[in-house]
Amino acid sequence: MRLIDPSHLFFRQAWRRYAVVGVSFAWAFVEYSQDNALWAYLFAAIGGYLAWHLIVRWRGSDDG
Questions:
Q1: Contact between residue 58 and residue 6 where contact means Cβ atoms under 8 Å apart
Q2: In terms of Cα–Cα distance, which of 51, 60, 58, 43 is closest to 18?
Q3: For a 10 Å CB count at each end of the chain, is N or C smaller?
Q4: ∠ at Cα 43 (19, 41), nearest 5°?
């Protein structure tokens, strides 16, 4: 079961893929700075999952 569809048209442009991953890691930092370690680890794990599927394993051509 995939939680994200990397072939969706929204993720075709590279800046959107990097932005989604970056926002997840940025929110993990915000949570960690507020001493919410559980939420920080959760969002860091989500960011890692997104980075794996949207950046590392990306297959397709960039239109932008």
A1: yes
A2: 51
A3: N
A4: 140
